[in-house]
Model the fold of this input.
Amino acid sequence: MAVNPDYVGRTYPPSGPYPVDAALIAAFAAAVGSSDPVHTDPEAARAAGYADVVAPPTMAVRFAQASDRAYVADPEAGIDYSRVVHGEQRFVHHRPITAGDEVLGTLTVDQIRQAGGHSMITTRTELATASGEALATCTSTIVVRAGED
Amino acid sequence: MGARSLASVSVGDVLGPVTVPVGRDTLVAYANASGDQNPIHQDEEFARSVGLPDVIAHGMWTMGAAGTVVAEWAGDAGRVIEYGTRFTKPVVVPVGGARIDVTGTVTSVDAESGRVGVDLTVTSEGQKVLGRCVAVVRLD
Done:
């Protein structure tokens, strides 16, 4: 099975909305070892200028990966997920994701490259609120390792 | 607590070193919080069946834990405005747990925009696990 190069440039309809709540933010912050009170204390978050508790910077990946699924799971895309490893990840935050946000993710397939039998797929997910406020640009490169056969 | 002041930061300032422990329970918690339930991060038998030495940490856990070091240095996690990395080597997490070691260096300070660039070095068992790990924080 080969990765289908025809998907480059394709943009998917927005996926979501993914609701963000305080419990999810607290769980993610704990998992990455962050005790910053802006994740768990609404008063501390408001004092720092935010509407509510703030997601850790890498929590955006949860919504980016949820938005990726429509592409990655598409049989026509030719991605054998059992051979996928994460190559690169980058976030540009337009404003922190906070509790109460309803996040929509719009996925674009930016690039598909081949090297040594491996395929490198770069996707970009624009996260925004339902009302169109930009939250984060998440760029991910996954590597689909060559098969043995 | 509060954000670090821009005036207090200079190129060459060092963050850490900070050692972060990671156990199998950490990976279960991360899987639940992130939605990434790939069994290579939880199930030793499955991980070995696909040719890995043992359970490995989510690359995104490692990136996230290193991001925490930057966020805590900045004094406000909402100040981390850009963050990117390559995943160069997996962090192997045996049943007794593992650890990552995180250090950072301030590489740029823009007095106009308040953008502060930080390069991170993240190792486990002495080996670099993240490559080109760079964050930008915005300070006043």
Remarks:
- The mean pLDDT of chain B is 96.
- Residues 59-74 of chain B form the longest helix (16 residues).
- Chain B has one domain: 6-138.
- Residues 6-138 of chain B form a domain with the Thiol Ester Dehydrase; Chain A fold (CATH 3.10.129.10).
